[in-house]
Amino acid sequence: MYFVYFKKIIVIMLFIFIYPVYSQVFNYKPSGNSALPPVDSIPESNKGVTIQEHLGNKIDMNLSFTDQFGKIKSLKELTKDGKPILLTLNYYRCVSLCSVQLINVAKTIKELGWPIGKDFSIATISFDPTDKPEDAKKKHDEYLSLAGQPEGEWNFFVGNQESIDKITKQVGFYYKYLPQNNEYSHTAAIFFIAPDGTITRYIYGISYKVNDVKFSLMDASQGKLGSTTDRFLLFCCYYDPNAGAYTGLAMGIMRTVGIAMMSFLGILVYFYYNKRKKLYK
């Protein structure tokens, strides 16, 4: 009689804990945008302006740019002591998209609270070859102040056309110069680079959730960044490439609970059959 009840308990527990996880996994639908405009409706100035993801590819860490102080630095120097890089591509005359993006990056970094330059680096590279170090210095002071870290190591770079072409092509960032108004047509994203140069994450748009930035830096650092709690939360989330963000906390928690319950049930089954063998010897 004891074994009959034990079997029933196992079946009930399997149904309670496994079915929700099963239904969540197999009923999941990506959050892609199904309302994109037809190709013919894209303005001429925006044609060819896009981002093509090169996840897993490596950028040339020996590429060098001139920082806000007029010093030439290679990207490799920013990864000293195994630091990942948060990269943005902008130009310093832009008062619309670039400004809004950098303001929001600074606000997110302020909310994150991690010291810039200590365990991770930030690099903003201008894709306008006419930008000068003094332009970069103004942006450096402005956005570090907004981030609440005036002494932080947020590098604002300028470079020649050859270096700009290499870095933009390697990360898949395609923009267009508009000579009629001396501006650039471009999109917005932030890129996460591992210490060895591997592109680990793209987050799109002009505003960023603090956890998306935190988890992306943790992924790029290969587990070196973040507290134990942060690592648990990262385990409970997953990166949705369609949404360009980390999502599914509930799904992740259910996954964790499911794994724990399966382990527990495995132990119960082991002791059950072990005891049964002893009774029938």
Architecture per CATH nomenclature, i.e. the level-2 architecture of the domain at 44-225:
3-Layer(aba) Sandwich
Helix and strand succession?
HEEEEHEHEHEEEEEHHEEH
Helix content: 40-55%
Task: Report the C-alpha radius of gyration, rounded.
Answer: 25 Å
Written description of the protein model:
With 281 residues, this protein is an alpha+beta fold. The protein has a domain at 44-225: 3-Layer(aba) Sandwich (Glutaredoxin), CATH 3.40.30. It contains seven helices and 13 strands. A five-stranded mixed β-sheet has the order 6-5-4-10-11, with helices on both faces. A two-stranded antiparallel ribbon has the order 1-7. Belongs to the SCO1/2 family. The chain crosses the membrane at residues 245-273.
Question: What topology emerges from the helices and strands here?
Answer:
Layout: H1 2-26, E1 50-51, E2 64-66, E3 72-74, E4 85-90, H2 97-112, E5 121-126, H3 133-146, E6 154-157, H4 161-171, E7 173-174, E8 176-178, E9 183-185, E10 189-193, E11 199-204, H5 210-220, H6 228-236, E12 238-240, E13 245-247, H7 249-279
Parallel strand pairs: 4-5, 5-6
Antiparallel strand pairs: 1-7, 2-3, 4-10, 8-9, 10-11, 12-13
